[in-house]
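Quick one, tokens below. Sequence please?
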């Protein structure tokens, strides 16, 4: 019983910390939290997309080599993101058992901040989000030799 309350409190504090960090971000407006059930189809997409098989259904990939700079990786990712996501789009960023719904006020700067945070936390180049406005999931994953882009439209536009 006490353990459950402690875990619930930790979850609430983690959610509050994430919300506060995005409220401080000038490139988005926080619209609220979403629960794990809301994210289930997104997580199914990620699970299906990342199979580590020869027929992995990626959209595009970028070869990672010594000559490829961090700037070039960011430019490649931003061009893919901006081909789908624009100012005013509502997106959901997933965080394990909850997500945050945001309205973007600036796309490039918002995602450059997300990439910088991933670099600072040494978690690689994995960026994922659901664009509710466009009905699209987009996920970037860096593997051994490539940076992959996966996307799936969830509805016809």
């Amino acid at each position: 019983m006490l353990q459950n309350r402690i875990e619930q409190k930790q979850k609430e504090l983690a959610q509050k910390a994430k919300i506060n960090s995005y409220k401080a971000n000038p490139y988005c407006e926080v619209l609220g939290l979403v629960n794990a059930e809301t994210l289930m189809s997104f997580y199914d997409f990620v699970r299906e997309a990342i199979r580590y098989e020869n027929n992995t259904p990626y959209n595009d990939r970028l070869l990672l080599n010594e000559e490829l700079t961090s700037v070039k990786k960011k430019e490649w990712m931003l061009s893919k993101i901006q081909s789908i996501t624009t100012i005013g789009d509502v997106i959901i960023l997933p965080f394990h058992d909850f997500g945050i719904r945001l309205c973007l006020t600036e796309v490039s700067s918002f995602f450059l901040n997300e990439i910088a945070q991933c670099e600072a936390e040494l978690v690689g180049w994995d960026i994922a989000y659901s664009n509710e406005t466009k009905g699209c999931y987009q996920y970037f994953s860096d593997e051994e030799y490539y940076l992959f882009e996966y996307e799936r439209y969830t509805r016809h536009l």
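The chain has four helices and seven strands. The radius of gyration is 16 Å.
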